């Protein structure tokens, strides 16, 4: 796996990288520059205090004697190397522009993780950095803000928005931050190639985007032998005005949940999928994935057509009743917990 860490300086990218190196035996790789330069020489050459400070940070990140085994001039060069060594686990903090991200993201072993922190928090870390060789803590607050804004003007924020996993580092200590990193399980292979549960639940969530019901978005996927039999989403039947266009009077009047169901014109996502497939296509080993736990009425129909297992993500008000019906009918019911993708 190749993990790229995107985000502004002092947000915690290097802490994440060091955690992966220490606890998961990742190797750090660099794009666009070589090992940190000699700071005693640089002190005479650099006018920009931020450039000097960054070199100080890099010196601490890479260490005096231990340096990354690999340096690459371009993202293309790293991409080629990582493809040949795809079994090696590597991490880089140098995905700094959208072009580099697009180059690396073509590979199935690449994961982009975004690391961010509030401006004030990053400024405090910047000023408290324990520098080596040169004390560069003479930049004022306005200088740091300008440095911060350059992250956005140079395309860094665009890369950050592409991250599959986003981390907000507001932690007061490295120890607390590392505990959070551990809980995210960034090295989990499912983040690169989703498990079957994740795959089908994402399809169900995508189907839910087609919902036209005014009350909630629900999507469903019916699967047999790891193949999709049918999909469904909730909304008014074919030929009837969409619910979100006034087709269902009950939903458009914002009727309290559980009341007036007899006058609702919307088909449920599970009903839609079952109607599209039919009992013969469902067979005896079908699994139904739904982003919301089936209601009592749908549970009865699920049991009738012979579905073997129901996997849901979000809870619903009738969970206990549905669970009893499905259990009595011999249908397995379980809740899906996806890998954490956010803060």
From TrEMBL:
CDD domains xrefs: deoxycytidylate_deaminase
Keyword Hydrolase tagged: yes
UniProt xrefs under InterPro entries: APOBEC/CMP_deaminase_Zn-bd (IPR016192), CMP_dCMP_dom (IPR002125), Cytidine_deaminase-like (IPR016193), dCMP_deaminase-rel (IPR015517), Deoxycytidylate_deaminase_dom (IPR035105), P-loop_NTPase (IPR027417)
GO aspect biological process, one term: nucleotide biosynthetic process
Known cofactor(s): Zn(2+)
Keywords, comma-separated and alphabetical: Hydrolase, Metal-binding, Nucleotide biosynthesis, Zinc
One GO MF term: dCMP deaminase activity
Similarity field: Belongs to the cytidine and deoxycytidylate deaminase family.
Protein name per UniProt: Deoxycytidylate deaminase
Organism field: Protomyces lactucae-debilis
Classification of source organism: Eukaryota, Fungi, Dikarya, Ascomycota, Taphrinomycotina
């Amino acid at each position: 796996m190749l993990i790229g860490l995107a985000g502004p300086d002092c947000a915690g990218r290097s802490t994440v990288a060091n955690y992966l190196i220490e606890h998961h035996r990742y190797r750090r790789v660099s794009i666009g520059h070589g090992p940190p330069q000699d700071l005693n020489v640089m002190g005479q050459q650099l006018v920009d205090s931020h450039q000097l400070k960054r070199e100080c940070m890099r010196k601490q990140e890479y260490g005096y004697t231990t340096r990354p085994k690999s340096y690459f001039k371009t993202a293309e060069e790293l991409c080629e190397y990582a493809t040949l060594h795809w079994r090696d686990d590597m991490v880089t903090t140098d995905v700094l522009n959208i072009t580099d991200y697009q180059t690396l993201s073509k590979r199935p072993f690449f994961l982009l993780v975004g690391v961010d922190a509030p401006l004030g928090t990053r400024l405090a870390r910047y000023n408290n950095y324990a520098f080596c060789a040169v004390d560069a803590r003479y930049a004022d607050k306005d200088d740091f803000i300008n440095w911060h804004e350059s992250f956005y003007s140079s395309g860094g924020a665009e890369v950050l928005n592409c991250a599959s996993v986003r981390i907000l580092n507001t932690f007061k200590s490295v120890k607390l931050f590392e505990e959070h990193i551990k809980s995210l399980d960034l090295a989990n292979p499912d983040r690169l190639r989703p498990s079957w549960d994740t795959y089908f639940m994402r399809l169900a969530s995508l189907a839910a985007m087609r919902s036209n019901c005014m009350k909630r978005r629900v999507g469903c996927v019916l699967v047999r032998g790891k193949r999709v039999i049918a999909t469904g989403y909730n909304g008014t039947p074919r030929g009837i005005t969409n619910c979100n266009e006034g087709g269902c009077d009950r939903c458009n009047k914002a009727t309290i949940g559980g009341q007036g169901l007899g006058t609702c014109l919307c088909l449920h996502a599970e009903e839609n999928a079952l109607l599209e497939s039919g009992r013969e296509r469902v067979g005896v080993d079908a699994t139904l994935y739904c982003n919301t736990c089936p209601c009592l009425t749908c549970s009865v129909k699920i049991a009738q057509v012979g579905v073997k297992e129901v996997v849901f993500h979000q809870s619903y008000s009738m969970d206990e009743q549905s669970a009893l019906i499905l259990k009595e009918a011999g249908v397995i019911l379980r809740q899906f917990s996806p890998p954490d993708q956010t803060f």
